[in-house]
Design goal:
about 625 residues, alpha/beta, Glutamine Phosphoribosylpyrophosphate, subunit 1, domain 1, Rossmann fold, 3 domains, 6-stranded antiparallel sheet, 24 helices, globular
C-alpha cells in the first residue's frame, strides 16, 4: 500500500520547467507520506509529473515507484497503491504475450497489464487498488479505482491540467486549489456525513474517481467510464449450493490475501466475521508451517461500565480470548485510554481530511499505530454485514427519502443555524441522494415488493455504508503506514451474494445464516451463532463528560469557526442531555456522544484547513 500524487498537462510538455514541477509534485506526495514510510520517488517526463510514497509489502528490494517500462520504444510510467491478489496468474498470462518481469511486485504486473490490455485492464485485476499511468503513446493519463473504492483517488481540474492525489491534502499543495465549502459540501457534512456521496470530494472543485471506474484525460478532455457494476441476475442455486459457493469463495479469497513479504496479522474481535477470517487464515498458515498473530481492541473502563443493549449485546474480550485459544493464535489485547481517544479526534480529521466517525475513527488510529509496531499488514472482518445483511435496518421497512442508518434527520437539522439550514436545503439534498441511489439499483424484470426492497437495501449498504467503513479503514490504518485487507469486499463474493434472496441470506430468519452455515466446522456453534456485536466503543461516562467539557469550551469562545454554522442554544442544550440510541447520528455506533465528538471534529477541521464557506 502506498500514496501517490501528480498532474498531467493535456496541452504542453512539462520538460521546460522540470525542476519546478519536480519540486511541486514531491511536495504533493509529501502530504501523503504517512501512507508510504518505506521509500520515496518522483519524476517528470513529457506531459506528466508523478511522485510516490511507498509502503513495501511485496518485493521490498525491487519495487520502487514511480515504475517505468519500455515497450516497443515507448516508456510507460505508473504510480500505484494497492494489492492485486491474482498477480501470479496475470504474470503467467502476460508471459505468454512475450513480457518478461524484473521484479516480484504486483506493480509491474499492473503496468504491463495496461500496456497489453489498455483501458480495460482493470477488468483483469482482483484486488484493492488505485493507480495512474502516463501513456505517451496515446498522449494521455489513465487512472482507475478498484470496484468498491477500497483505495482512494481524488482529483481536480485546472484548465488543461488534471491534478490528482491519494488523499485530498495532496491536492491542497497544488497552487490555486483551496478548501472552499459550498452548499453541497455543507449538505454532505451535516446531511449524510460521515458518509459521502460516491465521487464527491466535499470541497468545491474536488472529486474522487468513482469505484469501479477508470478515467482517460488528454487533449479531448476528461472522460470517466465504468468497468464494473453490480448486476441483477436470476438466482437458481439450491441453498446447499449457495453454502458451498460461499465457502469455496472465502477459502480462495483468504488464501490470496495472506500473501505478503512482511509480517501479517488479523484483527480478531471474537465476533462471527473476524473469527471466520482468522480461522481460515490459521488453516492456510498451518499448511505452510506458519503461526498467526491476532489483535483485539478494548477501552479502559469497559469492564466496569459496559451495559448490554440491542446494538452491543455483550463484550468482545472474552470471545476474542476464547477464539484465540481455540485456534492457537498469538493474541494481543490493545486497550485505549479515554483521554487519548478524545485527543486523537484531531488526528482522525487529518487522516481523512474531513470529519469522520469521531471516536470510532480515533480509536482505530490508536489501535493501528500499536499494530504497526510489529506488523505491516493486517486482515480484517469488515464488510460482512453489508454483504450478508447483518445490520438491524436490513430487517426493517426501507425509510422514505433518507438512509436507513440515519432515518431521523431532525437531530442533524436542529443543530444548524436556521438561516443556513434554509439556504442549503439539507432535507431536500438527502432526499435527492436517496432517490438517485434507488434509481441506480439494478433489478430483474418484474421484481417488486419485498424482493425489490431487499435489493435496494443491499445496494445502498454496499455503495454507501460499506464505502464509509472502507474509507475509515483505509485512512485510519494508512495514517500509521499499516495495510488492512478486507476479504469480504472481494467482488466475486459480493456479486454472488447480492443476488441471493432474503430467504437464502437469512434462512429461517437467522441473520447472516448463509455465512454461518458456510463456515460450519471452522468454529464452534456458539461462536458461529453469536449475536452481532459491532466494532467496540467506550462505555465510560467520563468520556462523554470529557466531550461535553471540550465542546462547552468551544461554544464559549466566539472566535471558533463552528459558530457560523450552529444553532447555539440547541447545541448548548445538548450538554445537559443524557444520551442513548434513540436518535442515532449514524449507524449503530454514532449516537449522542459521537455527535458531540463530530461537532468538535467539524470545528478543528475548519481551523486546521482554513476552510472558507461559500453559500
Amino acid at each position: 500500500m502506498c500514496g501517490f500524487a501528480g498532474f498531467f498537462d493535456s496541452e504542453k510538455s512539462l520538460e521546460g520547467e522540470k525542476t519546478l514541477w519536480l519540486s511541486l509534485v514531491r511536495r504533493m506526495a509529501g502530504r501523503v507520506a504517512h501512507r508510504g514510510p518505506d521509500d520515496r520517488g518522483a519524476l517528470v517526463s513529457g506531459q506528466c509529473a508523478l511522485a510516490h510514497a511507498r509502503l513495501a509489502v511485496m518485493d521490498p528490494e525491487n519495487g520502487a515507484q514511480p515504475m517505468r517500462c519500455v515497450h516497443d520504444g515507448i516508456t510507460y510510467t505508473i504510480s500505484y497503491n494497492g494489492e492485486v491478489y491474482n498477480a501470479p496468474e496475470l504474470r503467467e498470462e502476460l508471459s505468454q504475450y512475450g513480457f518478461r518481469f524484473e521484479t516480484n511486485c504486483d506493480t509491474e504486473v499492473v503496468l504491463k497489464s495496461y500496456i497489453q490490455f489498455g483501458e480495460r485492464c482493470t477488468e483483469k485485476l482482483n484486488g484493492i487498488f488505485a493507480f495512474a499511468v502516463d501513456d505517451p503513446k496515446e498522449k494521455r493519463l489513465y487512472m482507475c479505482r478498484d470496484r468498491f473504492g477500497v483505495k482512494p483517488l481524488f482529483y481536480a481540474q485546472r484548465g488543461g491540467r488534471l491534478i490528482f492525489a491519494s488523499e485530498i491534502k495532496g491536492l491542497f499543495e497544488y497552487p490555486g486549489i483551496e478548501p472552499v465549502l459550498g452548499k453541497t459540501g455543507l449538505c454532505e457534512i451535516f446531511g449524510v456525513g460521515p458518509a459521502r456521496t460516491p465521487g464527491c470530494g466535499v470541497f468545491e472543485g474536488i472529486r474522487e474517481v468513482l469505484p469501479g471506474h477508470y478515467v482517460l484525460f488528454d487533449a479531448n478532455g476528461f472522460r470517466e467510464n465504468p468497468y464494473f457494476s453490480l448486476k441483477a441476475l436470476p438466482f437458481s442455486d439450491s441453498y446447499g449450493a449457495a453454502v458451498r459457493t460461499v465457502r469455496d469463495l472465502l477459502e480462495d479469497i483468504v488464501e490470496r490475501q495472506l500473501v505478503s513479504d512482511v509480517p501479517l496479522c488479523t484483527f480478531l474481535s471474537g465476533g462471527l466475521d473476524s473469527s471466520v477470517i482468522t480461522a481460515l487464515a490459521v488453516k492456510k498458515r498451518r499448511e505452510h508451517g506458519q503461526h498467526l498473530d491476532t489483535y483485539s481492541f478494548e477501552y479502559r473502563g469497559n469492564d466496569r461500565y459496559f451495559t448490554a443493549n440491542s446494538y452491543q449485546p455483550d463484550r468482545d474480550e472474552p470471545w476474542a480470548e476464547r477464539v484465540s485459544a481455540l485456534l492457537g493464535t498469538d493474541h494481543t489485547k490493545l486497550v485505549c485510554e479515554n483521554d487519548l481517544l478524545a485527543d486523537l479526534l484531531t488526528d482522525a480529521v487529518i487522516a481523512k481530511d474531513l470529519p469522520g466517525m469521531a471516536d470510532i475513527d480515533s480509536s482505530l488510529i490508536y489501535f493501528c499505530r500499536e499494530v504497526k509496531k510489529r506488523h505491516s499488514v493486517a486482515v480484517c472482518g469488515e464488510c460482512a454485514d453489508e454483504v450478508f445483511g447483518g445490520y438491524p435496518w436490513f430487517h426493517r421497512p426501507l425509510p422514505e427519502r433518507t438512509f436507513p442508518w440515519s432515518p431521523d434527520l431532525s437531530n442533524r437539522t436542529e443543530i444548524l443555524d436556521p438561516e443556513l439550514r434554509e439556504a442549503i436545503g439539507l432535507e431536500s439534498y438527502v432526499a435527492q441522494r436517496w432517490q438517485k441511489t434507488v434509481d441506480a439499483v439494478p433489478v430483474l424484470p418484474g421484481e417488486d415488493g419485498e424482493a425489490r426492497e431487499f435489493r435496494i437495501l443491499s445496494f445502498m449498504n454496499l455503495y454507501w455504508f460499506m464505502a464509509t467503513l472502507l474509507e475509515r479503514k483505509d485512512r485510519c490504518s494508512m495514517y500509521s503506514g499499516l495495510e488492512v485487507r478486507v476479504p469480504y469486499a472481494d467482488h466475486r463474493l459480493v456479486q454472488y451474494v447480492f443476488n441471493t434472496p432474503r430467504s437464502v441470506r437469512t434462512p429461517n430468519g437467522v441473520v447472516k445464516g448463509l455465512l454461518r452455515d458456510a463456515c460450519r466446522g471452522l468454529l464452534p456453534d456458539d461462536v458461529l451463532f453469536r449475536k452481532k456485536s459491532p466494532y467496540p466503543k467506550t462505555h465510560n461516562p467520563a468520556y462523554e463528560q470529557l466531550l461535553k467539557t471540550r465542546l462547552a469550551t468551544v461554544l464559549r469562545d466566539p472566535s471558533q469557526p463552528i459558530h457560523r454554522l450552529l444553532a447555539e442554544k440547541t447545541v448548548a442544550g445538548l450538554l445537559n442531555e443524557t444520551f442513548d440510541y434513540g436518535r442515532p447520528w449514524f449507524g449503530q455506533l454514532m449516537a449522542g456522544p459521537q455527535m458531540l465528538a463530530y461537532l468538535l471534529q467539524v470545528n478543528v477541521w475548519m481551523l486546521r484547513y482554513h476552510i472558507r464557506i461559500s453559500v
